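so im writing up the methods section and need the N-formylglutamate amidohydrolase record in one place, dumping it here so i stop losing it
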Amino acid sequence: MERLTVDTIISKIKNEEVFNAVSDDYAFTLKIDSYVPYACAAVHDGHQFRKDLWDNCLHTEYDRWYEEDPETKNMVISHPIVIAGCDSRFEYDLNRDPENAVFETAWGKQLWRNPLPANEKKKSLQKHSNFYKVLHALIAKLEEMFGVCIVYDMHSYNWQRWDREVPTWNIGTSNVDNTRFGKQVESWRQALASIQLPHGIKQTAKINDTFQGNGYFLKYITNNFNNTLVLATEIAKVYCDEYKRINYPEVVAAVESQLQTLLPKHADEFYNTFKN
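--- predicted struct ---
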């Protein structure tokens, strides 16, 4: 993996080069093993939280981990194009617009002891901006090369705090053109429902059950590109113990190994349907 400036990353994308990089501000990673009409994203995978902010933050390290989406990058790591955040959403949230990306409160609790200084907020928002510059270049290149593109926007959610039964997988589609892409959404739901998990973990997949797909990442791509479908895909955190903070690597591995087959198959069907 190389450490590259945002301008160099964008230049490599424009030249259709393959590479594996971390941005020079260490805010995100992007690997391109080959150019294909689909990409995977894990914008909330990051847990980094710069030390300048520690003393001012009222949330504990566990509080932050609990609301992040650990292991979502590892679930799609084998695919040719993967972009992922390195920083905690408690510094800035890549799935919120710039005006709301730096929290003042987080999940009902004040985040900072003292209001965040303007220069600290500016540092965080610059990283948010850099990520979206690269994302824009990436999707533009894939649409240019293939005409259409599909992005698997991977997230996770805390299922144990719900007071009803919730699905293992949820796809949020309220900002998707469901008239155009409804069949592809349903076939993705069916693919997710087919995944077998260890320990008898119940396997269900629903659409707009727990979340509706209102994230900025999905909206940004959908509003800026005409031929890219973003599938906001949430897995319940059955791959860890939310309260004891224990990860279950065998569950992550089961998801990753089955997505190696299911995800490219779904992407191929999407491409063959819409490439004309």
